Each structure stands twice: as structure tokens, then as C-alpha cells.
Amino acid sequence: MRQTRWNVFGNVVNPLQQFQSEMNRLFDRWSDGGRSGPSGYPALNVWEDNDYVFVEAELPGVEFKDLEIYVTGGNELTLKGERRSPTSERGVWHRQERSFGRFGRTLTLPFAVDPDKVDARLENGVLTVKLAKHESAKPRKIAVKAE
């Protein structure tokens, strides 16, 4: 008679490992796979009207000269920059919760935009990027003909 070893935990561990793997993939997808820096910095708001898409990012302490904005592939917006750490010559840090350093975030827009018609403004620590929709992405009214 052949003896087989009964593994009590074998049937439990494999599904748990699969579940953990799926959860890791899910969170990686939400956080751009870690490409966007800590917790998706900078936080973005995106909205549209008939002719434009607007992207708004909170960037306190970032100067316009430290920002780079790219439109690639017709529908990808990339924000890169650096928030410089304040220097304190006489003091000692007791707490530092704000992050500093280089950041980059790429956002896939829901439609194509015209890269030649982009306007970016930085006011009071808020970056607003106004991107004109490509003609093919604008809604068109279709005339109905009666026979």
C-alpha cells in the first residue's frame, strides 16, 4: 500500500498567494506602477468642456522654472519637476512630512489633444494646463436629412 502525506496547509497557502499577487497588481495599476512618486504626486483633477481638457495639479513650493510639461502620443500628458528642500542653517528639524525632490507623473487623456495648443499657468501653487481637443475628438452635430 502506498502512503501519501496529507498537507493540511497546501490547499490554503496557494490561493492566499494568488490573492496577494492580484491585490499587488491592482494597487500597482492605481498608482501607475510606482512611476508617479509617493501616492501619485502631484494630485490631479481632470475635466473637459466641448473644446478643451483641463488638468489641475497642486504644486506648493514649486517654481515654474522647475517644471517640464510634455504632450506625447497625442493623448499623454507628462508633468516633471522638482520641489526643492528648504535649507535651515541655524535650526534643527523636528518633523518633516512634506516630500521634496524630483517627481514625474504621466496621465493618459481620454482622447487626442492638439500639442500646439497647450497653455500652462502656475498661480498660488496650483498648475492649470489647458489642452485643446484634437478636431477628431470634438463632438460633431450630424444633420439629419428627410426623404
3D architecture notes:
This protein is mainly beta and 147 residues long. The chain has a domain at 34-85 and 101-139: Immunoglobulin-like (Sandwich), CATH 2.60.40. The chain is built from one helix and seven strands. The longest helix has 21 residues, at 10-30. The protein is flat, with a radius of gyration of 24 Å.
The total of beta strands comes to 7
Shape: flat
Topology pattern, helix = H, strand = E:
HEEEEEEE
Number of helices: 1
Note the main sheet: 4 strands, antiparallel
* CATH-defined architecture of the domain at 34-85 and 101-139: Sandwich
Secondary structure layout plus pairing:
Layout: H1 10-30, E1 44-48, E2 52-58, E3 67-72, E4 76-83, E5 101-108, E6 113-123, E7 126-133
Antiparallel strand pairs: 1-2, 2-7, 3-4, 4-5, 6-7
What are the key terms here?
single chain; 147 residues; mainly beta; Immunoglobulin-like; 36% strand; flat
TL;DR of this structure?
The protein is mostly beta strands. It contains 1 helix and 7 strands, in the order αβββββββ.
